[in-house]
Amino acid sequence: MDIDSMVKSMMTAKKAPLDKMNQQKQLLNWTRESYREVSSKLYDFRYNKLITKYGSNDVLTVSKAVVSGNTDAIKATAGSKANGIDMEVSVSQLATKTTVTTAGAGSGKPSTSTLASLQSAFDSSDPTSDAAKAKEFKLVVNSQTFTFKGSTDIQTVISTINDNSLANVTVTFDETTGKLAIASKTSGTDGKVELGSGTDDNTLLSLFNKKNQTEDEWTTKTGVNSIATINGVEYNNSGNTFTVNGVTITLLTKTNTSGTDVPSKITTQTDTTAAVDIVKSFVSDYNTLIAALNSKIDEEKYRDYAPLTDDQKAEMKEADITTWTLKAQSGLLKNDDIIKSVLSEMRAHITEQLGGLAEMGISTGTYAENGKLVLDENKLKTAMEANPQKLMNILQGPASAPATGIFDKMASSVFNAIEKISNRAGTNRYSADLTSTFKEESVMGKKLKEYNSRISTMLTYLDNQETRLYKQFTAMETAMNKLQSQSSSLFSTSS
Questions:
Q1: How many domains does the chain fold into?
Q2: Do both 328 and 301 map to the same domain?
Q3: What domain range is 78 assigned to?
Q4: Taking a C-beta distance cutoff of 8 angstroms, is the pair 195, 217 a contact?
Q5: What's the pLDDT tens digit per position in 224-277?
Q6: Entry pTM
Q7: Between the CA of residue 331 and those of 36, 279, 287, 375, what are the distances in Å?
Q8: Sign of dihedral through CA atoms 166, 169, 171, 177?
Q9: How far apart are CA 211 and CA 230, in angstroms?
Q10: Which of 373, 404, 425 is the last residue of a domain?
């Protein structure tokens, strides 16, 4: 008897339910992956486009600040609230930060040097000894106390102090001079670098002195505010960047460096180029997204192409397997309710403002184009030159009600879709990563758990069935062999 062939033949029929479950599980996994792809596109459109790229107040501004006269002294950028007033700017003082600088530990001191090695320059101690490594050095700045052992290197000292937000200072080290500098993070007269007054409060700074370790071997420069005169009015600021008449001005240098004041002049011009480019980019991003979503819900579904079993794959060529699998994966999200809903909502946000958008050169395509936006650049440019605020109000919403703008409305609808997909498929609602793991407590995650449990039970059942069949056929073969032996013996005796 060919027991293996007989058992295999009988088990094939018994394995049919298992194959069916594995196919259903595979379809569920493929569907989750399709949802993750959709969620990734939605996340990218919402966070990277609607919020980050198009959500800024100034992205649709049509004002451009032009600096003439002393073009080296200032930089100017017009914002959305630029009022077009010309300005003459004279800069008499730049804002600086309060800074404490040591005399220097000498050249040739890399930032990897330890504090013990700096100490050895004063007392000729062995920097590798346990005592030198254990010796402590202290710094008190802005009421924050730092203590370091001799084994600590300079770069660690710097990062430790800089990472302390309460100290509010930035420490730098010049390897060419060995000077350590401590600067306030806040510029102007508000910035401070207040050292401790105790006897041992500044032993760390003493290491970075050339001559000796007395506490007066460092210099302090107090920060000052910037002073600029704009159209005859003096402006005193803690920083070098501030906004006047809707224009952000950055002071770069004094205007009277040669002894004679050479002021800078700022004029505001209308320039629709950047705003038009932003609208073009939005239209392109929107059209790309809805095309991708429409392709999912319109994709043909081949119901006769189920996922292949291992046995089926074993009898097929690799190219045929690929072709079959592509058809089996097609149409998994056909007519999906979540995708159809978000598409409908986004189109509604456009339709609500279609009259105003049409006046600005933005319209929808034909019915067959499924809500695609069409842009007339010349019409948009002309409309923005005439009334730039109108498009800003439509897309971003007025300053008093930004949530009424198309961008905010779309962002809300897209987020709702991302959440629904996450609840159903277990996708990460805060990432566009296509390799992110799925949440098990989603609808599909629970369904997969159920499949895994049923498959495990079925495998145990089939294993028991196979064992039983082998035992039965083996016993049958043994009995038949015994009967054959008895028959042979009987015939032999008769003859």
A1: 3
A2: yes
A3: 63-86+236-270
A4: no
A5: 999 999 999 999 999 999 999 999 999 999 999 888 999 999 999 888 888 899
A6: 0.69
A7: 15, 33, 21, 31
A8: negative
A9: 47
A10: 425
